[in-house]
Amino acid sequence: xxxxxxxxxxxxxxxxxxxxxxxxxxxxxxxxxxxxxxxxxxxxxxxxxxxxxxxxxxxxxxxxxxxxxxxxxxxxxxxxxxxxxxxxxxxxxxxxxxxxxxxxxxxxxxxxxxxxxxxxxxxxxxxxxxxxxxxxxxxxxxxxxxxxxxxxxxxxxxxxxxxxxxxxxxxxxxxxxxxxxxxxxxxxxxxxxxxxxxxxxxxxxxxxxxxxxxxxxxxxxxxxxxxxxxxxxxxxxxxxxxxxxxxxxxxxxxxxxxxxxxxxxxxxxxxxxxxxxxxxxxxxxxxxxxxxxxxxxxxxxxxxxxxxxxxxxxxxxxxxxxxxxxxxxxxxxxxxxxxxxxxxxxxxxxxxxxxxxxxxxxxxxxxxxxxxxxxxxxxxxxxxxxxxxxxx
Amino acid sequence: xxxxxxxxxxxxxxxxxxxxxxxxxxxxxxxxxxxxxxxxxxxxxxxxxxxxxxxxxxxxxxxxxxxxxxxxxxxxxxxxxxxxxxxxxxxxxxxxxxxxxxxxxxxxxxxxxxxxxxxxxxxxxxxxxxxxxxxxxxxxxxxxxxxxxxxxxxxxxxxxxxx
Lengths: 392, 163
Prior knowledge:
The complex is a heterodimer.
Chain A: H1 2-40, H2 56-66, H3 77-93, E1 102-103, E2 106-107, H4 116-137, H5 141-172, H6 177-187, H7 204-221, H8 233-236, H9 246-271, H10 282-302, H11 306-327, H12 334-353, H13 361-389
Helix pairs in contact in A: 1-9, 2-9, 3-4, 3-9, 4-5, 5-7, 5-13, 7-9, 7-13, 9-12, 10-11
Chain B: H1 2-23, H2 27-47, H3 51-75, H4 91-111, H5 125-134, H6 138-161
Helix pairs in contact in B: 1-2, 2-3
């Protein structure tokens, strides 16, 4: 009866992923997004529900749960109802192959399958089906336009995304997410800056290029600004989910944030060494801490509104504290490192979102087919050549 | 026993949506019904311990081919029309062809002596697939790539000609 146990384990882990990650990604994600948008636009963001507005998303969720489900009269009911579920489930299924860290000798991962990154990109590509279905079944021209744009965007950006994933898989020599992190631990450096031994630090340009290709494609894949054409508010009202109300709308949000966090987690694993802690000489850690203090002091002295710079100061203090701890040789748990890297990337994605304007459709397609795709292919070839010449 | 049960479930998951694909009056629904059908085939691949193929199946067929189909349908004028006839006056001819094809396939399947290899497939078959492509099947692999390249260039030339 081992399969019964297997099944129970799978169900249990599914519940954990779906509840825990739903809470973490959607709630913290939405809160962070609004807060960071606030800082960047020199306002405060959510402030009134709970301390510093922390419970704002909880309140919003409770509100959305009470809303009426409205199905447009001419909509395709079955597909209209299925679409948000597809988006949310596909986004959360990404998380099966994400390792969060180690506990003793065990790796904290739902399932380390040997096609990890392939599985990830397969699940990520299913999301768009939900989006197109939602756009079409709503029977609304704005929704349909959003769905169409989403389709053209996905077809264009799936290739550079896959090339980025392929790059990491090729350098690590495995498709397993755990294997990729272990390869980086073994060679003593992130793939972002280091290639395997004979090449070493000289391989940094390849890694940085691959990471940039991947991140740009990932941003496009999760429909975030500057690639948010499928849901462009100023042109399409809300794009593909314009007809959705209440919790169905929230499921789209859950899917979007779940996938964004998933992409950031995969980038962390492939290019930033996953749960591995960075190795720097103690004096370098002290230098990092001092540098953070200097930056914080400059911001503190030049800022006009102390309320708005407070979060930046908190972040600077956190960085300084971590680097000081590292300089005296106190090690943080690996899961903390993973989350630190993950949230740094998430912060970066949000920063980009609130800084850049939206691309036009032709610019978007040109960027993919004429820049990212050749760049990714050449980078893959060049890295393979360098690794082969290096005697791998 | 368990394997047989899983196979029957997966076969139903593959076949029932496939019937919808060929009978639905709604072309978008027909295209979307391909998804569960493809996922059923993915399940069969996993049952056969070909997980690399399963991943590729989801990535290419579910994630890309279906999206491409939907994209084309939505770009076609009147393509999103809900009522669509899937049958025409050639139904008897088609039925005869289908029955004949089914008969031939069944005869071939029952007459062939299937070799049953001993041992289990390699635990990590991505490497094995890569090696096979680059050694034993390199000619087929390269020929296929060439065909794809030619069709790619053909598509670009066709698209440019319309401008």
